UniProtKB/TrEMBL annotation:
PANTHER family: L-THREONINE 3-DEHYDROGENASE (PTHR42687), L-THREONINE 3-DEHYDROGENASE, MITOCHONDRIAL (PTHR42687:SF1). This is NAD-dependent epimerase/dehydratase family protein. Belongs to the NAD(P)-dependent epimerase/dehydratase family. InterPro entries: Epimerase_deHydtase, NAD(P)-bd_dom_sf, NAD(P)_epim/dehydratase. Residues 2-235 form the NAD-dependent epimerase/dehydratase domain.
Amino acid sequence: KILVTGALGQIGSELITTLRDQYGDDNVIGTDIRSSEDDTCIFETCDVTDGKALCETAKKHNVDTIMHLAALLSAKAEAIPQKAWELNMGGLVNALEVARELDLQFFTPSSIGAFGPQTPKQDTPQDTIMRPTTMYGVNKVAGELLCDYYYHRFGVDTRGIRYPGLISYKTLPGGGTTDYAVEIYYEAVKNNRYTSYIGANTYMDMMYMPDALKAIIQLMEADPDKLVHRNAFNISSISAAPEDFGEAIRKYIPEFNLSYDVDPVRQKIAESWPDSIDSSAAKEEWGFEPEYDIDSMTSDMLEKIKEKYVSN
Ligand code: VAH
């Protein structure tokens, strides 16, 4: 049985569905600080900064795994850094303590945001310098080290993935730097145009959500003896700048127009991150193999968003 925190977030909302398909509805418990209208799955409101409540929820449902997704993303965290530390680190240490006390398998995402300006930008290695210049990045590096500590010191089976920007059509992201790569598809369908807050020629790693979710299950089911790394694995499938999304969209919406109104805060965050990271450790240690490239992702995104607007 798996407890998911942040179950109403961009990853969490789709992960719940994927896990229920994979393991059965009764084996997935979603939690979030907000309440859920979706009464088809087991759901509990829970504030991850309340460690006692989180532990009680895990005990009540007799879970054997916790997937901790509750966190503030990069741009939001940069706006309220002290709150971000409290939630991102306070929530993580509480979730790790629950995993230690109840002997649970543990997953939490890291991010390409864990890298900083001195990190090699092309083919960023799995093991390299990590001196991020954002609160979010500090949280992710500290989080990776804390998860490794709980593995080496307490034997908690912690595993993590450094996610690129994730693109999906089901739940809008909130407060991220890579959110432009989701907004662009919605605006293309609604208005045939998009004004990007990230400048041209600004490359970041991206991934379609189905590949991101498959990776979590693959990693959590991997043979632990084959894992050289744990927290956290580089994975990526697409390295793109805004104009690459524009070009891919114009294959389906020829009149699509892309313009720019750069947001200096999020542009500065984006420029501190790699352009393209190396996924070879994930491929070698647990068989990571993404399915979608920018063209197949674009085709699916536009089709699903059109369906969403036509049916509503
Ligand atoms: C963000 N989508 O923009 C998240 C992610 C790699 C980016 O961490 O903050």
